[in-house]
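User: Working on a comparison across species. This one is Tetratricopeptide repeat protein from Enhygromyxa salina. Can you predict its structure so I can line it up against the others?
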Amino acid sequence: MPTLEPAPIHLRRIAARVTALSTCACLVAASLVPSLASAAQAEDPAAPEAEAMFRRGQAKYETADYNGAIELWTEAYALVDPSPENASIKALLMYNLAQAHIRAYELDQNAIHLKQAQQLLESFRSNLKVLYDNPTQLKEESAKADMRLAEVEAMLAELEAKDEAKDEEPPAVEPPPVVEPRDDPPLVDDGERSGKPLIIAGGAVTGLGAALGVVGIVGGVMATGANDISDLEPTDLDARDQRFATGRTGNALALVGAIGAGVLLTTGIALIVSGVKRNKQHRRGAAALRHLGPGLSLRF
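Assistant: Here's the predicted structure for Tetratricopeptide repeat protein from Enhygromyxa salina:
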């Protein structure tokens, strides 16, 4: 997984600008302190509070409380007046927030941190013009910012690939146990058992197989419907992802229904047939006993 540089801790006035994005991670945060102080000198009433929040956020960052740093730096960002004079302060706060989100992800593995870091770095990249006046230097630092952004995007792509692999795995289906009908010899006495229990069991298993068949049909309809995305806007990525997820679910249901229905219907029908045969044998044996019974007599 790509690694990114830590957030800044070392002082430099923003008027001197940042000389290289490779050292930006060591300069950005502390550059804000004199910048916020300059804003205070310009009679910005919110500047002292913003500077205090920034310092507290820096302490949180240095002690690995990245979520706390994110909260304080976000409040400091909101307090800085959105004037052209403060554009560079806001740009550097964006960079600090992006770094804090990346570090927070390393601790809790919450993908939302990477997505927020990506958006913040994109905003920082688009505001580099307020930090660099020299075109050559601006081009170099833009390239470095693009490389930093690409690292975050690669981490996001890796996470999405893992999630897709999990979604595509079909659920494990264990086939129901096959009940083998007992091949008992026909009984012709009072201890004989009829085939009624087998018929009842076969009917229950057949009904369950039919239910799974319905599940398979519903899954097939879901999967077929999910293939049609003509009603969705090309830019509505969330809706498209949801439609594709529905299609994968439908495919899984269709697979489970087809396998389960085939096994259960076959088993149920076999049980019913076996029960019917046993009933016929039972009736033939009982009829034979009734026929022989009256003719048996003993004489003394």
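For your comparison, note: The helical segments are 24-41, 47-62, 66-79, 87-108, 111-126, 135-168, 196-226, 237-292.

User: Helpful, thanks.
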